[in-house]
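Notes from the 1:1 (GR / supervisor)

We went over the backlog. Supervisor wanted to see one worked example end to end before approving the batch request, so GR pasted a single chain during the call. The sequence is below; no edits were made to it. Supervisor asked that the structure be written out right there so they could see what the output format looks like.
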Amino acid sequence: MRGLFKLKFIATFTLVLLFGVIAGIFALILWYFGATGFVGISLVLAFSVIMILLQWYLSPLIIKSVYRMREISREEYPWVHEIVEDICKKEGMKKPKIYLVDDPTPNAFAFGRSRGSANVAIHRGLLELLDKEEVKAVIAHELGHIRNRDMIVMCIASILPILLYYLAIIFTPRDREEGASIGLLIFFLAMIARFVGHLIVLWLSRTREYFADSYSAYITGSPRSLASALVKISYNIPRFRKNRAHSMLRAFYIADPFSSESVRGAMEREKKLGALEWFMTHPLTYKRIENLRKIEEELKKSGTPR
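Structure output shown during the call:
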């Protein structure tokens, strides 16, 4: 997990540093010239559009550089290519490029500028930990993000906190005679607005994760494969041998007696996190598993599960 945390930290820090410096300079310009009203709103909107375009264009380049990924050849992992091709064929999607991140943590993510130029990155740890059906479910989840254009949606949404920040600066009454005190008030109100915007973006991110989970469940016809993958990834389930994987999937919560109780226990412990989910990009795992179980029941009633 340390390796994944380091990579995510570097990627996030790079983006924050790049766009944060630009945003800070623009905030100083607004403050110095006292832009208000129509002029201020026009400047903010124009700047927001520029920021979205910059982030849209530069993010894939930064991600590739930070994660030091390489494209997976068909000769190396033919079955991974077959999974992607099969789902894309069903959906009429262009096949994304598939990259490998040489990191032992089980993870995968989609990135890119558009659905037609999207990419899927898979960590080596994911391929080592999960069986092929679980990998297929995870890949389907990432293809769900591409199918739903989540990269573009989240890129646009990410500008909301800074947009609210600037609007707070523009519309907060200012009195130049008050000097530093009014400046601190404006900064405080602007930071509150930005914080609220950030919570909204996180909520939207969690919502898109549910959509991607549902997409994976329906397109593969196997909600339990994704649920099993989530259990292994999130709850630190021991790394079972791949030839035993199918026996583990006989029941939704994994049939092995040494893991079934631990999974239920992990879910109960996770429920105690409560409001901490507000600050997370992904829903709590137990909620995702419960959602997948509902989909499995729905598929059983319709007679379409695999």
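Supervisor's comment: The beta strands are 70-71, 97-101, 108-112, 118-123.
Batch request approved.
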